[in-house]
Design brief:
Shape of chain A: globular
Radius of gyration of chain A: 24 Å
Number of helices of chain A: 12
Oligomer: heterodimer
Distance between the termini of chain A: 21 Å
CATH superfamily of chain B: MetI-like
CATH topology of the domain at 120-319 in chain A: MetI-like fold
Strand content of chain B: under 5%
CATH superfamily of the domain at 120-319 in chain A: MetI-like
Shape of chain B: flat
Largest sheet of chain A: none
Helix content of chain B: over 70%
CATH architecture of the domain at 120-319 in chain A: Orthogonal Bundle
Number of helices of chain B: 12
Distance between the termini of chain B: 45 Å
Number of strands of chain B: 0
CATH topology of chain B: MetI-like fold
Structural class of chain B: mainly alpha
Strand content of chain A: under 5%
Chain lengths: 330, 301
């Protein structure tokens, strides 16, 4: 899934480090961690002792080449535990009459998938609404957030800390509070129950993400090249297209994907402002979970999850090395 | 003659600079100001009865009604419990996971990629998955039956819809451990391991290296992350709606219940509740940010 095994030094969190107010400009300084060594632990290292939980072992602590086999097993167990909830989801979606105490379904069936993917099923309408809203949110949030990201990523100015907190707050204040505050006004403006209204309310949590992620992108880009190009006689458009764009495009693509994903996962804001007339995938999924066919619910959940998983793959590709840092999209 | 000219030029430049700074910030600040600020303003004014038909000027009636609501204080206590417990567990387990993952030798990159699989998964999906996993006839219950620990679904502990919101907390921790872990990994990677090596060379024990070297490096970033995790665990609506008890409900669910109450008189109370919830988050964030900045200064000193 990730482009691994290159053995290149890894970037610190390139984008998507914590959108932490206090660490904006510092996000993602390049680090000089040693390259990943090739080869496996020798027999002497195997089975000496299990890893002390959370404590570095003897010798060089933290060096990537100094884990013991027990560490790998423990880490694999941890990852398996985190992935465990997806197992019943997949099994349930592929079953019929899957009751306690069956662990694997006695009857495998594609019934739920056929229902969910049938032409004319609610899934398609929800998918369309989700995609349209998320695309709108991505576009608008990019346009408004990237200039702010450039300022926050590259400039020191008076009032900067206040701006950082102001930008961060809309992500942190509960969406339901924002939603009911906007809903009354949107009713009056005719925006309640419409796709544009839902786009607007999603912008509240999405814009801060894109601002903070693009700030990280600009902080890491070598924008001194712009001055060099200018000195060499390039005009504004040439600089923007031939110098700035290639420097920041991959990072901004990741920021855009995050804007998309924030919108993709919104439930409370869509429920209130959409008022039942805008049925995105989370709304459809919740309605199904609250009183529907379990197998259909599971299949709907997986349909909803797929683009998110796709994001992981795409981000890994775009960043092109080691770990994409998906700083907490919600 | 030339000196004042230079000064003038410098002033013009710095003025241009300020203009450029704020021009760049303006669109984003406008969106945040109009939509977020507008939402908060609207909730505040309506909670005070301003703009409602048949009311005479601002009044605190909605707040009095809210504080007298028998569900309000239990809801505050439950929400605080859920948010604090989820944050503490996520931070401790997330940092532990980061310390573990960075020492993995075989397949570290694949494991780290899989480790963050949950991050982009929307909360509703996580909630449905936990429902199928931890319900009394869920997957884990089937496993305990198959090994003979439980005979029937009713023997399995009620982890969902329970007074301690175990299912809700499990969902948050499941979702946030990778978040904290990835942030911690990024910090550790950026810091490198020179200091730990030096400490080890000087004879520091594993615990001393963690306490006096690794922890101070992690603290500022992890604190900022903890603020974010707290805010999410405090404010997420769909997870407790699906996995939590119906009474008392957590604050975000209570906001929605009061807002959609058939009794329209509950609406100002819902607005007052939205204001209270916002105020709590703002205070926690400001205190947290101040603490994180102090930690940064200390770490830098």
């Amino acid at each position: 899934m990730s482009a691994h095994g290159t053995g290149t030094p890894t970037p610190g969190s390139t984008v998507g480090s914590p959108p932490a107010a206090s660490s904006l400009p510092q996000t993602g300084r390049r680090s000089a961690s040693p390259p990943t060594p090739i080869g496996r632990p020798g027999p002497a290292a195997a089975g000496v002792e299990g890893p002390g939980r959370g404590s570095p072992g003897h010798g060089r602590p933290g060096g990537p080449g100094h884990g013991r086999p027990g560490t790998t097993v423990a880490a694999a167990a941890l990852v398996a535990l985190l992935l465990l909830p997806f197992l019943p989801l997949v099994l349930t979606s592929l079953s019929r009459g899957y009751f306690h105490p069956q662990i694997l379904p006695e009857t495998w069936s594609l019934r739920a998938w056929r229902l969910v993917l049938a032409p004319g099923a609610g899934t398609w309408v929800a998918l369309r609404d989700s995609l349209m809203v998320a695309a709108g949110v991505t576009l608008v949030s990019l346009v408004v957030a990237v200039p702010a990201g450039r300022v926050l990523g590259t400039r020191a100015f008076r009032g900067r800390r206040v701006v950082e907190v102001v930008v961060l707050l809309p992500v942190l204040v509960p969406g339901i509070a924002v939603a009911i505050g906007l809903h009354v006004t949107f009713l009056r403006l005719g925006l309640a129950g419409t796709l544009p209204g839902v786009v607007l309310v999603h912008l509240v949590p999405a814009t801060p993400y894109v601002v903070l992620l693009s700030a990280g992108v600009f902080a890491n880009a070598d924008l001194g090249l712009e001055d060099q190009a200018r000195t060499l006689g390039a005009n504004r458009r040439q600089v923007a297209w031939s110098v700035t764009r290639p420097l920041v495009a991959p990072g901004l693509a990741v920021a855009a994907l995050f804007g998309f994903l924030v919108s993709w996962g919104q439930y409370a804001t869509t429920l209130v402002v959409g008022g039942g007339r805008v049925v995105t995938l989370p709304i459809l999924l919740f309605a199904s979970a609250a009183g529907g066919d379990t197998a259909v619910t599971a299949a709907t959940a997986l349909v909803h999850a797929l683009p998110a998983v796709g994001l992981l793959v795409v981000t890994a590709r775009i960043l092109g090395r080691d770990v994409p840092t998906l700083g907490g999209a919600r | 003659m030339s000196a004042p000219l230079l000064v003038q030029q410098a002033r013009r430049w710095s003025r241009d600079d300020t203009v450029r700074t704020w021009a760049g910030l303006a669109p984003a600040l406008a969106v945040v100001g109009v939509l977020f600020g507008g939402a908060v303003w609207s909730a505040l004014s309506r909670s005070l009865g301003v703009g409602a038909i048949g009311t005479a000027g601002p009044s605190l009636a909605a707040y009095r009604r809210l504080f007298a609501d028998p569900e309000f204080w239990p809801s505050v206590a439950l929400t605080a419990h859920v948010a604090v417990t989820s944050t503490l567990l996520s931070v401790v387990l997330g940092v532990g996971a980061a310390l573990l993952l960075r020492r993995v030798r075989v397949g570290r990159q694949s494991l780290t990629t899989l480790f963050q699989f949950n991050l982009p998964i929307p909360h509703v999906i996580g909630a449905v998955a936990i429902l199928l996993l931890l319900g009394q006839s869920g997957f884990v219950s089937r496993l305990t039956t198959s090994v003979g620990w439980t005979a029937a679904p009713a023997d399995f502990p009620a982890l969902l819809y329970d007074p301690y919101a175990v299912g809700v907390i499990v969902q948050y921790v499941w979702k946030e451990v990778p978040f904290v872990g990835i942030v911690a990994l990024a910090i550790l990677r950026a810091a490198g391991d020179d200091l730990e090596v030096a400490a080890a060379t000087l004879g520091a024990s594993a615990w001393q290296r963690f306490r006096f070297v690794t922890l101070p490096v992690l603290l500022p970033g992890v604190l900022s992350t903890a603020i974010i995790v707290f805010a999410f665990a405090f404010g997420t609506f769909e997870v407790p709606l699906l996995l939590g008890a119906s009474y008392p409900a957590v604050l975000p669910v209570l906001v929605h219940q009061r807002y959609t109450d058939v009794d329209l008189a509950s609406r100002p109370e819902a607005m007052a509740l939205a204001v209270v919830v916002t105020a709590i988050v703002v205070v926690v964030v400001l205190v947290g940010v101040a603490l994180a900045r102090r930690a940064v200064r200390r770490a830098g000193a």
